[in-house]
Amino acid sequence: MGYCLGYALIEGGDAAFSMDASAVTFGPGALAEVGEEAAALGLRRVALFTDARLAELAPVAEARRSLGRAGVDVVVYDTVHVEPTDRSFAEAARFAAEGRFDGYVSVGGGSVIDTCKAALLYATYPADFYAYVNRPIGEGREVPGPLPPHIACPTTTGTGAECTGIAVFDDTGRKAKTGIASRKLRPTRAIVDPWATRTMPKSVVAASGFDVVTHALESYTARPYSTRPRAPEASKRPMSQGANPWSDMGCKSALELAGRYLLRAVSDAEDEEAREGMAWAATLAGIAFGNAGVHLPHAMSYAVSGLCRSFTMPGYPEGEPLVPHGVSVVVNAPAVFRALAKTSPARHLDAAARLGADVRGAGPEDAGEVLATHLGGMMRAAGVPNGLSGVGYGETDVDALAAGTIVQARLVSNAPCAVDEDVLRGLFRGAFAYW
Fold first, then answer.
1. By the number of CB atoms within 10 A of the CB, which of 11, 23, 147, 161 ranks highest?
2. CA-CA distance, 295 to 110, in Å (whole number)?
């Protein structure tokens, strides 16, 4: 039928794509503006979501001071669970429902921001917990109407949660991650202050940084939006619509920034330029994947996180097994891109080059290996575990990992080719170790 900005238009496929984003304020010291932003939205009583560790640190103190100067009443909820669960979402929702707040502020990483999204949803439109959860685990019910204002202030450089309508949690009964997805969950405003990331330990910088990388890689190599069947009406177009010209721009820039700054940010906590560069990369990748969606590395990560038995990572809360989200994604990524590069060799090779790989002399047939090898080298340099074996998995886990992935329909369907459990088993086997 023709081409739209490099995308072939296919009979019966979607000929249009949508562009949605939170209003973003970015820059060192921007967190001091949260009070003015809240007042401009007409807020008088807000819930400030954070976690127990951050509650004692400078970013939360700065947010509280700013809100106080603006005359906004603040009630702090500081019991957010790192890597949220169905139970922790439900507890946060009860707090939100009882507090009668007219707005919300979240100061923290993806766990904090996602918990705030879920809490304000259930407080505004009470329902059975699984009513809004993605199919097939939940009903996938649409959010009934508008939600209260939410100002998201990230303190990590990775999740992009401040720019997306997605809230992810661990389903403790099924031992798998899943989530809630709706454009209406997207925060009203994002205040991205690179100075707020100064308290991140090295391991958190690495994990969140690889979340940026995989967001950009997956969105850039996802199923093209034009191959998705045309929605019966505009409002039914999925939020994760596939690769598109709008998201491509953010992906390309985010990959270049991560290639330049990720390892610097991990190795030197005082490298302000690197922290600022990664904060901007996270914002761009968040906007990109918030419109394109991610695919198999993230789908596989949900099972990796949910089935974790004993792995712990320095810098994260002790006392319970935990594979940090960015780690659970990137341990799968080289295997996926090595196997799927044939679906779009030019994009995979371009992505490798933007991350800093030497692609001189490489042809389409080399794209997967070049990208996988370079990504594995970045992981090793950052001290990330060596594939699935590094986080405690082996051959006996393959069936359970594949079964926990195939139910992530929103993500699996966004892959650039058809995938079943046999394919997933092969990808998990290829992800055991890279060096």
1. 161
2. 18
Local structure of 145: helix, strand or coil: coil
pLDDT, tens only, 87-109: 999 999 999 999 999 999 999 99
- 3-class DSSP state for residue 167? strand
Contact 269, 202 (CB under 8 A): yes
Spell out the long-range contacts of 177-180 with Cβ–Cβ below 8 A and sequence spacing 24 or more.
Answer: 177/301, 177/302, 177/303, 177/305, 177/306, 178/133, 178/134, 178/137, 178/138, 178/302, 178/407, 178/408, 179/114, 179/133, 179/134, 180/117, 180/118, 180/121, 180/132, 180/133, 180/134, 180/138
Q: For residue 345, say if its preceding peptide bond is cis, omega within 30 degrees of 0.
A: no
pTM higher than the cut 0.85: yes
- Name the DSSP letter for residue 197: G
Chain centroid to CA 293: 10
Helices (H) and strands (E) in the chain, counts: 15, 10
Closest CA to 307 of 407, 159, 207: 407
Burial of residue 32 (CB within 10 Å: 0-12, 13-18, 19+) is: middle
